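Hi V.,

You were right to ask for the full record rather than a summary. Here it is.
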Amino acid sequence: MSALSTRLGFSPAQSSNLPMDQKAWGRPSAPSLLGGAPFAKNGYPILANPASGAEWRDQDGPNKNEARVLAPGQSGHQPSESSQPVARQMSVPYPDIATPRLSLQSGLQHGASIHGTKRPSAPSIAHIEEIEWKDLEITQTLGNGEFGQVFRGTWRGRLNEKGEPMDVAIKALYRDPNKAGHDVQAINELKKEIDSFRGLKHKRLVCFLGACFEHPHLCFITEYMPNGSLYNFLHVRKVKLPTRHAMNMSMQLCEGVEYLHTQDPVVVHRDLKSLNVVLDMQFNIKLCDFGLTEYIDKNNARGRGHNGGSPRYMAPELFDKKMKITEKIDVWAMACIFCEIFGGAIPYDGVKDMPTLTHIMTVKKQSPSIPSHIEIEAVKQLIRECFLFDQDARPSSSNVFKRLQRIKKEDPVAGGGKKKKGHS
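Predicted structure:
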């Protein structure tokens, strides 16, 4: 049990019995996991408990008038616990490929915009909501990362619809009181993530609620996502998505990435992976973990931080310090996640070490495998283009989103057009 768990009041017995959502790797980061966001009526999936085999339904589309099918005992709001596998009893096949940790810069300044509409600059750190530690209660450990641990908890400063303290995710930073200057570094890392996150508001991003700066409790509070990470959903629970629902999830993912890329200056996530994509109460996608996010000026496209990211999802230009960094690194990583959503493995699944991966990327120039069983050729072609080694030739996230929309509308297998016999 970690020293942080001890300070937070966990006994060894409690700590050992708490479920872990995943085992992180590379630059490990446990997702900030809260639901309740409005469900978008744009053909995205509504589903009952997928682990139980209950049927899926589209909210809009051919089956929009059909009743939602629920597993026995479900309320319609969250999956039946009896039918869910227990994540902590399963091993997560993430080979440990590590990159050196470099310090993060803090205090990024920006005035965000979307679709040409300017917004006021984000508030200073002094104007964010500071949450008192006494108002937080830890209820469950969700995961460990390089910079801290993520817990499920409640916040008495905000009540839910039942008048009870709100469920939240609490990302507590590690601190080493015996290491000179470590507290300053921890605070700077917390401020860096807050600076990256606070001005971004979209239904495809987890909602930032506030932060606690009370020593020794340095933590970042977001909404809690009850269905965990996309990685856990696909690779631990091993849910196989019907094609039309894989399309819907891919569109949701791309919608969030497009939002980041249409800011002014452009926002680059830099650490997109299925562990940093989380699912709300209705299994809608949201992006989380903005610890490596950069605001990139088009005239100075490299950005101000280190390459970062998780090696398996890193675009080839991130393996070469001489190459410029643009938002196209997110397009590559997004295509890796598309492959997972459509039933594929994690990228470079058989690779066990960083030198081998570097050789594959820089010498062999081999992109991740695209699942051969993807039924829609236009989707395969789109993923191929996202995996182009020439970043300038890769499509933009806006272009990817428009093409996914068109495929969804026109292809019967994706849920559009006139259905062909034999397709569900």
